[in-house]
Design brief:
With 130 residues, this protein is mostly beta strands. The chain contains no helices and 11 strands.
Length: 130
């Protein structure tokens, strides 16, 4: 089954940058969506960015659109999230996820229906503080 492992988290000052990586393994995710999510303390998990499996579009949450960039290598074996001009409110655990199920099925529509995300990494901590 698909596995996802995030790395690259850490502590930075406001205005700093970090680059997160999500290493995937198992079935090819070429037709699956892969997204980055985050959950701040006391808050609900929210989507940050997403690479669509159906049309290849890359979508961003409004508050990060001009600061974060997501891309992947061929077949989404590694998916990246580069974060610039980090703000204190970006502090969270960051997760990558895919809409491929443990049985290897995917519609590719996860970026347009986040309830379809079925396989998750363990998360990596990002702390932005002075």
């Amino acid at each position: 089954q698909v596995q996802l492992v995030e790395s690259g988290g850490g502590s930075v000052q406001p205005g700093g940058s970090l680059k997160l990586s999500c290493a995937t393994s198992g079935p090819s995710l070429d037709r699956a969506s892969v997204g980055w999510f985050r959950q701040a303390p006391g808050k609900e998990r929210e989507g940050v960015s997403c690479i669509s499996g159906t049309d290849g579009n890359i979508l961003y949450e409004a508050s990060v659109k001009d600061r974060f960039t997501t891309w992947s290598d061929n077949g989404k074996s590694t998916v990246y999230l580069e974060m610039r001009d980090l703000k204190i409110e970006d502090t969270a655990v960051y997760y990558c996820a895919t809409d491929m199920t443990p049985l290897g099925h995917t519609s590719g529509f996860g970026c347009y229906d986040q309830s379809l995300f079925a396989s998750w990494g363990q998360g990596t901590h990002v702390t932005v503080s002075t």
